[in-house]
Specification:
The chain has about 210 residues and is mainly alpha-helical. It has 9 helices and 3 strands; from the N terminus they run E-H-E-H-H-H-H-H-E-H-H-H. The protein has one domain. Keywords: Membrane, Transmembrane, Transmembrane helix.
Length: about 210
């Protein structure tokens, strides 16, 4: 969450001149710092974008992970575990870190070529040629988005979510089986006997403490 996810690196003769005069455009970005940047953009849609990002990239993933860990580790009463399971399932809807996983490489693929062709020796020879001779830079201006360690941590996080965080995943099936043992299998396996036996099992297990260890 607070680890650097990607870096913005501006290279070329123009950035070299600006750095020489105290202006540095290189910066690191984490999932948390992106929320601050969105809020500082201004405009009428600032609050909408800020709230949406917080819900889907910060609050939702944190709630999903924390509730699922509590569900698997704490020996709580069955009623509480079922409520926690339902909350965790609902929180998984508000998860969009996989979008960020795709967006970061696309930023580099998009901004790299565009920025490189924005100022060139052919388009701005009066500016780029003297600066290229002075600083020994082939390009006049180029913006790159480089992956940081936090991005690879994010890859692992999303992979674990795909394995355990959505309905139908092995972890969800395990929790569902342990918390709702009376549920009969889906059609056509469900029979009258299965329903009757399920109700009896529900009555026998209701109110008892349970754990998912």
């Amino acid at each position: 969450m607070f680890m650097s996810c990607f870096d913005r690196v501006v290279t070329g003769s123009v950035p070299a001149l600006l750095k020489q005069n105290g202006f540095d455009f290189d910066e690191e970005y984490s999932i948390w710092s992106l929320a601050d940047i969105i809020y500082e953009l201004g405009g009428l849609n600032r609050h909408l974008m800020y709230t949406t990002y917080l819900i889907f990239c910060v609050i939702g993933p944190v709630t999903r992970c924390s509730t699922q860990l509590l569900l698997l580790l704490l020996p709580l009463p069955t009623k509480w575990l079922r409520a926690l399971h339902e909350l965790s399932r609902n929180a998984s809807i508000f998860y969009a870190l996989e979008v960020l996983l795709v967006a970061v490489p696309l930023l580099n693929m998009t901004f790299g070529p565009v920025s490189k062709n924005l100022l060139t020796v052919k388009s701005q020879p009066a500016l780029c040629v003297p600066l290229a001779e002075r600083f020994g830079e082939e390009t006049c201006l180029m913006l790159s988005v480089n992956l940081a360690k936090g991005y690879y941590v994010l890859c692992v996080h999303v992979a674990l979510f795909l394995y355990s965080g959505f309905d139908g995943s092995p972890t969800h099936k395990y929790c569902q089986h342990e918390l709702h043992r009376s549920d009969c299998p889906p059609f056509p396996c469900c029979s009258r006997g299965g329903k009757k036996g399920g109700r009896q099992a529900e009555q026998a297990s209701g109110g008892e403490a349970a754990t998912l260890h």
